[in-house]
Amino acid sequence: MSKALVAYFSVSGITARLAERLASAIGADLHEIQPAQKYTAEDLDWTNKKSRSSVEMNDKSFRPAIADKVENMDQYDVIYLGFPIWWYVAPTIINTFLEAYNLEGKKIIPFATSGSSGMGRTNVELEDSCKGADLMDSKRFHADAGIDELKAWAEQF
Ligand SMILES: Cc1cc2nc3c(=O)[nH]c(=O)nc-3n(C[C@H](O)[C@H](O)[C@H](O)COP(=O)(O)O)c2cc1C
Description:
Blueprint lengths: L3 E5 L5 H13 L2 E4 L19 H7 L19 E7 L8 H7 L7 E7 L8 H5 L7 E2 L3 E2 L6 H8 L3
Parallel strand pairs: 1-2, 1-3, 3-4, 4-5, 4-6
Helix pairs in contact: 1-5
Bound molecules: flavin mononucleotide (FMN).
C-alpha cells in the first residue's frame, strides 16, 4: 500500500491549518518544513523590494536553508506539498526541500493558500527540483477548505 506524507511550509499558519486538516482527512503523516532562519514580519514585507522575501524571490536560484529533515523519506510514495503562494509561485524554500531528497518514483502533489492568486507558474518553477518524480497538477485552496473537499481532491491521486 502506498504511504502518504503531507509536508508543508507556512509562515502565518494558514497553510499549516489546511495541511493538518488534509493529513487527518487522508490518514497521512505530517511534516513541517522549518526554515533555518525564521521569517520575521519585516522579512515578509512584499511592499519593500529590499525585504528578505523580496530579495530571495527575485533570485530563482536562491535556496533558503531548512532546519529539519523528514525521517525516512523512503517510506513515502506520495507527497502532498503545501505552501503559501509568494509572488505567484512557491517560496524557494520549497525547491530547497525537494532538492534535499531522492524523489525517484514518488508522486509530488503541490497545494497552496494565497490571498487571491491561483497557482500561476508554480509547477514550472518546481519541475527541475523534482528529478525522477511525477509532479502532479497543483491546486490552490481557500484557507477554510473543509475536510470533505480536501479528501475528495487528495483521493484522485
Ligand atoms: C512575500 C509574500 C508574497 C505573497 N505573494 C502573494 C501572491 O503573489 N498572491 C497572493 O494571492 N498572495 C500572496 N501572498 C499572501 C499569501 O499567499 C497568503 O497570505 C497565504 O495564505 C499565507 O499562508 P501561510 O499563513 O501558510 O504563510 C504573499 C505573502 C507574502 C508574505
